[in-house]
């Protein structure tokens, strides 16, 4: 137990402490900027960052998510400050935290995931546009207006009256932010926002520029408990719910996104919502901004190596130390530099990747309506408009019925009905069916996932009428038997029947409808798996062998494969399944990590050499394919420097053949290490094995002569997709051999 505790502390010191320092350097300038955009005291942003780190980090349900003031909430806060005042806004934050706490206790977190991401992305993009327009006026030496339209109208006049030094500071800040990502990796270790503000502050001080300085007066020392908002209590309640729901949704969606960035414990969303609620209550009570989980800081935490909640908690501690011990340094920052930082952040919030995603799912109208309405009318109105349109589009998809008709050569008509058949789709359904000529023989395919009574009555009545007029209707249901059950009078519950596991040979034994029964062998209690194989062989003899016997009878004389297929021994990789190949197509070699030892490498391996020689010089294959896969355990061992091989000396020796892959990975991807590094190495490994193949002279000669093709594949197990992996260099590029080749050596 002591050893486990010691190991845990060592891991925290090694990974979480450095990550917390990096995140705190990102959090300080962003928190100041968001407070400025929210119309709140600048110290309110620092308070929210401290509370988000310490309280939300300690009580939340995500191991690595970082919480703090969020740009997406700034529009709500600035409106609340103008309407009720700052101390009343703090009370609204406190009450919103209480609402989040109650929702978390009652396990309501999953409901927040029902919000369309297109609405959230559109809202954030609109907030980014509004922030950028308002802060651009400050960069130009003026003051922002109350609305985005007013800021846009006033912008030309503001440009005509530029204030030299203030504009220079803003332009300098944006330039540093834009160019920072292109600098060497060692320099980029300093977060871009911090570097930009430091550069602006030092430059303005060195040249004596006339700029506006950040004012921290009335900060931590002027604390007063929040007061209740005065005004229509309906509007106050609406404001509390708006802050609670927006902050909660952003936090929960951020948790889900961050879960895909690391390999640690998955987030408990209800606990996360509870922790966010307590943190918002504390932040409101202390005079801080409302807070939420923030993707920028969370991504920085994962990228910096944060593994546990200690990195989040410590980042809050560092922000507190900075604010109390070095707060004077903040007053050296030009206000125009903070405004320029906000302009840059606002531009980044219009994420083209989000637009591509919503376009791929047909949700661009939701995104655009949300964005435009938020800009023109306000945040709450825009979110409601986006949700309403998303609901309408979802209802339209659920009720959309597709009827495809195709005439067959024998005079029959093939009709396919697809979609969810409800009473809302009955008008279109009956209109399409009544266009079918009387007396026509019809093959009707029902490719549906639901059918209510109204849709059944429409199809059944049409069928009876069509058959009475001399036609025929043969109905084939491709999924659940909705029509057949309804016609038999069966009570159809549940509304959507669970999918039936198809009885297919490629399914694992545990998922087949008729699992092979183990056949006991003499004295074999421990041979359960062998019994399953025996039962599987008997199943093959009973159902499959009669179908494939003619093929194997022909193949028994000679094999003529066209491909040498080299892949991993992983049980989840099925070469014939993922390549849609049959008997006699692939000459297959499998080993740990789909490694091809380079010619002359140690430890020596003749089995792979023999396979390559036989495939290329006897069988005359046209293609050699190396297929890697996601989450490869061998590559995890290579990435760990052999540590994960443990006490397996044979495995450690074999994994030495992956050293070149690791070297290539570090050389090509070393400056982009992230939580998906393992899968990147798995792809690089495929490329390196293609290179290793060309260390064999005969292979290299055939490749350069165009007689042999080397192909790289990567099988993503989670998505069941096969991807092409490009080679490291063209096939006609000359090969430099690492070892001298003796006469006659292959």
From TrEMBL:
Principal EC category: lyase
User: Which controlled-vocabulary keywords does the entry list?
Assistant: Lyase, Membrane, Metal-binding, Transmembrane, Transmembrane helix, Zinc
Q: Name one GO cellular component term.
A: membrane
What's its EC? 4.2.1.1
Q: Which reaction does it catalyse?
A: hydrogencarbonate + H(+) = CO2 + H2O
How this chain sits in the membrane, per its record, is: Multi-pass membrane protein
Binding-site list for Zn(2+): 568, 570, 629, 632
Q: List GO molecular-function terms, semicolon-separated.
A: carbonate dehydratase activity; zinc ion binding
- SLC26A/SulP transporter domain location is 13-360
Residue stretches spanning the membrane: 17-37, 44-64, 84-106, 118-140, 160-180, 192-209, 233-258, 317-346, 366-395
Q: How is the cofactor bound?
A: Binds 1 zinc ion per subunit.
InterPro entries, sorted = Carbonic_anhydrase, Carbonic_anhydrase_CS, Carbonic_anhydrase_sf, SLC26A/SulP_dom, SLC26A/SulP_fam
Pfam families documented for this protein? Pro_CA, Sulfate_transp
Q: Where in the cell is it found?
A: Membrane
What role does this protein play? Catalyzes the reversible hydration of carbon dioxide to form bicarbonate.
PANTHER family referenced in this protein's UniProt entry, alphabetically: SULFATE TRANSPORTER
The family classification in the record reads: Belongs to the beta-class carbonic anhydrase family.
Q: What is this protein called?
A: carbonic anhydrase
Q: Which species does the entry assign this protein to? A: Nonomuraea fuscirosea
Taxonomic path: Bacteria, Bacillati, Actinomycetota, Actinomycetes, Streptosporangiales
């Amino acid at each position: 137990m002591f050893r486990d505790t010691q190991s845990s502390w060592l891991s925290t010191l090694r990974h979480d402490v450095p990550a917390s320092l990096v995140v705190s350097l990102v959090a300080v300038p962003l928190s100041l900027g968001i407070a400025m955009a929210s119309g709140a005291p600048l110290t309110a942003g620092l308070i929210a960052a401290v509370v988000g780190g310490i309280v939300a980090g300690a009580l939340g349900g995500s191991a690595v998510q970082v919480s703090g003031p969020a740009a997406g909430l700034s529009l709500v806060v600035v409106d609340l400050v103008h309407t009720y005042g700052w101390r009343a806004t703090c009370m609204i934050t406190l009450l919103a935290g209480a609402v989040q706490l109650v929702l978390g206790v009652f396990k309501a977190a999953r409901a927040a995931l029902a919000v369309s991401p297109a609405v959230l992305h559109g809202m954030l993009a609109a907030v980014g546009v509004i922030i950028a327009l308002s802060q651009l006026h400050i960069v130009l030496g003026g003051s922002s207006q109350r609305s985005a339209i007013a800021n846009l109208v006033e912008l030309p006049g503001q440009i005509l009256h530029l204030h030299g030094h203030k504009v220079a500071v803003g332009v300098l800040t944006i330039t540093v932010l834009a160019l920072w990502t292109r600098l060497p990796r060692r320099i980029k270790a300093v977060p871009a926002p911090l570097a930009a503000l430091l550069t602006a502050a030092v430059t303005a001080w060195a040249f004596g520029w006339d700029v506006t300085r950040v004012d921290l007066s009335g900060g931590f020392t002027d604390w007063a408990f929040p007061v209740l908002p005065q005004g229509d209590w309906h509007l106050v309640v609406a404001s509390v719910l708006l802050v609670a729901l927006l902050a909660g949704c952003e936090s929960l969606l951020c948790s889900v996104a961050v879960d895909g960035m690391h390999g640690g414990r998955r987030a408990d969303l209800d606990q996360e919502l509870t922790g966010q609620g307590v943190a918002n209550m504390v932040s409101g009570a202390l005079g801080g901004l409302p807070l939420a989980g923030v993707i920028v800081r969370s991504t920085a935490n994962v990228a910096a190596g944060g593994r546990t909640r200690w990195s989040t908690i410590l980042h809050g501690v560092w922000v507190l130390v900075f604010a109390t011990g070095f707060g004077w340094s903040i007053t050296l920052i030009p206000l125009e530099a903070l405004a320029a930082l906000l302009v840059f952040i606002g531009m980044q919030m219009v994420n083209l990747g989000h637009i591509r995603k919503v376009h791929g799912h047909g949700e661009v109208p939701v995104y655009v309506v949300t964005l435009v309405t938020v800009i023109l009318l306000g945040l709450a109105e825009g979110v409601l408009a986006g949700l309403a349109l998303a609901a309408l589009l979802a209802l339209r998809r659920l009720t959309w019925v597709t009827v495809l008709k195709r005439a067959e050569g024998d005079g029959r008509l093939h009709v396919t009905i697809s979609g969810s058949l409800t009473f809302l789709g009955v008008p279109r359904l009956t209109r399409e069916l009544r266009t079918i000529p009387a007396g026509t023989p019809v093959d009707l395919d029902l490719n549906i996932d639901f059918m209510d009574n109204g849709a059944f009555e429409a199809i059944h009545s049409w069928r009876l009428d069509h058959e009475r007029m001399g036609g025929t209707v043969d109905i084939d249901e491709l999924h659940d038997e909705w029509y057949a059950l309804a016609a038999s009078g069966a009570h159809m519950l549940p509304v959507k029947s669970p999918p039936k596991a198809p009885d297919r040979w490629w399914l694992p034994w545990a998922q087949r409808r008729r699992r092979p029964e183990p056949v006991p062998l003499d004295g074999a209690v421990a041979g359960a798996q062998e019994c399953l194989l025996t039962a599987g062989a008997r199943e093959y003899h009973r159902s499959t062998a009669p179908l494939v016997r003619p093929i194997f009878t022909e193949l028994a004389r000679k094999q003529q494969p066209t491909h040498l297929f080299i892949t991993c021994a992983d049980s989840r990789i099925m070469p014939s399944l993922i390549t849609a190949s049959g008997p006699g197509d692939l000459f297959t070699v499998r080993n740990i990590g789909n490694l091809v030892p380079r010619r002359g490498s140690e430890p020596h391996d003749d089995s792979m050499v023999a396979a390559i020689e036989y495939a290329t010089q006897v069988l005359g294959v046209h293609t050699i394919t190396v297929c890697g896969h996601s989450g490869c355990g061998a590559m995890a061992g290579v990435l760990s420097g052999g540590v994960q091989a443990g006490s397996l000396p044979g495995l450690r020796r074999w994994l030495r053949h992956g050293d070149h892959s690791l070297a290539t990975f570090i050389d090509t991807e070393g400056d982009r290490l992230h939580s998906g590094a393992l899968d990147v190495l798995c792809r690089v490994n495929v490329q390196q094995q293609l290179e290793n193949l060309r260390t064999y002279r005969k292979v290299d000669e055939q490749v350069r002569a165009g007689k042999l093709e080397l192909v790289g594949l990567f099988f993503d197990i989670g998505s069941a997709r096969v991807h092409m992996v490009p080679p490291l260099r063209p096939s006609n590029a000359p090969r430099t051999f690492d070892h001298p080749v003796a006469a006659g050596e292959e």
